Amino acid sequence: MSGAPRIGLITNPLSRALREGRHALGGGATAGLLRAAPATPEELRFVLGDFAARGVDLLVVQGGDGTLREVLTAIPGSFEHPPAIALLATGNTNLAARVLGTAGPGEKGLAALRRAAEGGTLRRRAAPVLEIGRPGLDEVPMRGFFFGAGAFTAAKQVADEGLHRWGIHEGLAVALALAGTAARAIARRSHPLRTGFDMAMSVDGQPAPGGRRFLLLATPLERLMLGFWPFWGEGSGPLRWLDVAAPPRRLAAAIWAARWNTDGGRPRPWMPEAGYASGRADRLSLRLGTAFVLDGEVYEPGPDGLILSAPSSVTFATP
């Protein structure tokens, strides 16, 4: 059908599901598509440049949040006009796919996507993308959807070092790691996590209260997974942020409130006095004395801190 989008397919060859033989895409399913499985960021940039030259305007990404993060980061340097993105989710957590939609992980999902593209019935939605710059480093900004530092980084490392070895993957691993990290911080007042981390934050140019922090989170998404929503507060920017002072007070009650946050995102009356702050912003400037996590990967901060913003949006397509 004339007018149908030109489709390019990016597959992550390191995806655990694909390495285990699940969700493979046979030749019949991909017939007529531009297809590549880049194994390095350099290969990915080359492939995306080739796709752009060939007029691809619908980019199908088979992988998880990490694969999508690498694709989003590479797109601005490859496409003059960014393509729409469709997700075939095969990752561990698949947060973006759960929130923004997915065609499905394998051949059935790809077939449904191709039918909708050819029939002109694709559903599209624009979503702001988190951009993280590390001043002082000669690199393009990283792009993704969920930032965490402090206890969140510790939970991520627990999941990597322990739960995944036991065969516990996907959203369950994240939930168990976060729950375990919180439980240790609650149960042992002498636990190192309770003392927090050296982190300083400025919200739209206004410094936040100083001191050590237990947790920082930020996302441009409108919801998360497992019914968890820890954000509230005022502001008009696309970034939602959460700042928890150390040592964390009433942590169990705060977790419960985030799990059942059904009242429009309003905080419990005790939260500000207990060291919990949240809001919306256009720009966050951070100084971190610890590593941070972006969409499942741990990174070190730059010598001059981090700049978080969401200056642009990407269109996501589903059947």
Q: How would you describe this structure to a colleague?
A:
Pfam families: DAGK_cat (PF00781). InterPro entries: ATP-NAD_kinase_N, Diacylglycerol_kinase_cat_dom, NAD/diacylglycerol_kinase_sf. This is DAGKc domain-containing protein. Residues 41-136 form the DAGKc domain. This protein is an alpha+beta fold and 319 residues long. Helices cover 28% and strands 28% of the residues. It is elongated, with a radius of gyration of 20 Å.
Number of strands: 16
Distance between the termini: 16 Å
The secondary structure category is alpha+beta
User: Which CATH class of the largest domain applies here?
Assistant: Mainly Beta
The level of helicity is 25-40%
Low-pLDDT residue intervals, each spanning 5 or more residues: none
CATH architecture descriptor text of the largest domain: Sandwich
Helical run tally: 9
Mean pLDDT comes to 86
Protein name: DAGKc domain-containing protein
InterPro entries: ATP-NAD_kinase_N, Diacylglycerol_kinase_cat_dom, NAD/diacylglycerol_kinase_sf
Domain DAGKc: 41-136
Pfam families: DAGK_cat
